[in-house]
Amino acid sequence: MSVSWIRNPQVSAMLLLGAAILGLVIANTGLGPGLDAIKHGHLPFTIFGLDLSFAHWITDGLLVVFFFVVAIELRYEFTQGDLNSVSKAAVPTIAAIGGVALPAIIYFNVAGADGAQGWPIPTATDIAFALGVLALFGRRLPSNVRALLLALAVIDDLVGIFFIAVFFTETLSLPHLLLAVVGVGGFWLLGRIYRGKRGSWPLRIALLAVALITWWLVAMSGIHATIAGVLLGLVLSPAPAESAREKLEPFSNGIVLPVFAFTAASVAIPQVPLSELSPVFWAIVIALPVGKLVGVTVAGLIGQAALRVPKLERVRLSELIGIGLLAGIGFTVALLMNELAHRTAEELIVEGTLGVLAGSLISAVLGAVYVALLSRRYPPVDTTEISTRDAEEYLRRTDSER
C-alpha cells in the first residue's frame, strides 16, 4: 500500500492541525484528567538509566525522527538546494534574522521578567504547516515565493535547533557528550561505507544501532535528545540519507508529528477571563503573527536592496507579506521550545501552549486568506509543467547522490 500521499505538505498540515484540535478538545472534557495522568506517567522501570514520562518519550524519543528528517533536508538545501551558495542563502538568512529578532524583542517586552526564559518560543516557523498552507491556498504564486519561504523556514529551524542545544541545557556530562561525538563520527563512517556497498542489511543494522547508542549518549549528556537526530542527519552521506528520508518521511508526517501535536496541545484551557491570562500567553500571541510579519517583510526588503538583487528576481512586497504571515505559524518547534523553557512551571506550559496554538492559528488563517487573494492575481499554473519539473528535480537529486 502506497503512503506517498502522506508526503503531501497539504496532508501533513491537515494531520497536524487535526491532531492538535483533537488533543485540545479531549483535554477539556471528562477524559482530560485521565489523559494528563497518562502523559505524566512513568514506566515501572528505567531504560539504561533513562526515567522519562510518556510525554517526554515522545518529545525526547519519537520527535528525534522528525529532527533527523529535517536535518537531511537541511543538508540537501545547503549543499544542492536553494541555499547552496552564499548569494542564494543571503536574502533568506537576512529575512530569517528579522523574523527571529523582532518576535524575541516583542516577547521580552510583553512577557516581562517572569516569562523571560521563553523568548525563543515565537522565533520558530513550522516548515510542514507553513508550506502546507501555501500549497493549499497559493498555488498560482511564483516558485521563488515557495523557495524563499522554504529557505527561511529551514534557517529558522537551524536557529531553533541552536537555541535548544545552547539555552535549554541545564546540566552537561562531558564524558557522555564526548562519547556521543564518537558515535556521530562512527555513524558518518558507516554512511560512507554504506554508499560504496549499496546498503547491505548488516550495514543498515549497524547504522541503526549506532544511531540508538548516540541518541542515548546525547540524552544522558544533558543536551536535549532531539539534537542527536540533527547531528546524525547532517553527517549521513547523501545516498543513505535519501534512502532514510524516503522511508522515514511518511512515518514522521503521519505518526510522529501528529502524536506530538496531540500530546503537546492536550492542555486544559484555564477557566479565567482573557484579561487574567498571563503575559506569556499574550507575548506569544502577539509575537508570532506580528513579529514574524513585520520582521520577515522588512528584513527581506532590506536584504534584497542591500544585496542589489535584480528587480526581475526579487520577491515583491506583496509576496513578502504573505511569506511573513505564513512564517508566524510556529507550531511544532515552538511547542517544543515552550515545554523546554517552562519545564519547571506547569501553568506557564499551559498558557504558552495556548499562546502558540492561538498565534499559529491567527497566522495560518490570515496567511491562507492573504495568499489566496494574492494568488488570484496570477495566471493559472500549468500542472503538467509542475509535474515535469518535479520529476526532473527528483531525478537530479537521485543522480547527484549516487
From TrEMBL:
Keywords attached to this Swiss-Prot or TrEMBL record, sorted alphabetically, are:
Antiport, Cell membrane, Ion transport, Membrane, Sodium, Sodium transport, Transmembrane, Transmembrane helix, Transport
Sorted alphabetically, the Gene Ontology cellular component annotations on this record are:
plasma membrane
Coiled coil located at which positions? none
Cellular location of this protein?
A: Cell inner membrane; Cell membrane
- What Pfam families does the record point to? Na_H_antiport_1
Which Gene3D superfamilies does the annotation name? Na+/H+ antiporter like domain (1.20.1530.10)
Q: What GO annotations for molecular function exist for this entry?
A: sodium:proton antiporter activity
Q: Name one GO biological process term.
A: regulation of pH
Which reaction is this enzyme known to catalyze?
Na(+)(in) + 2 H(+)(out) = Na(+)(out) + 2 H(+)(in)
The principal location of this protein is membrane
| Cross-referenced InterPro entries | Na/H_antiporter_dom_sf, NhaA
Segments spanning the bilayer are: 54-74, 86-107, 119-137, 149-168, 174-194, 201-217, 223-239, 251-269, 281-307, 319-337, 349-373
Q: Does the keyword Ion transport apply?
A: yes
Topology with respect to the bilayer: Multi-pass membrane protein
Q: What's the stated role of this polypeptide?
A: Na(+)/H(+) antiporter that extrudes sodium in exchange for external protons.
Family note: Belongs to the NhaA Na(+)/H(+) (TC 2.A.33) antiporter family.
HAMAP family registered for this protein in UniProt: NhaA (MF_01844)
Can you name this protein? Na(+)/H(+) antiporter NhaA
- Please tell me the species this chain comes from: Agrococcus baldri
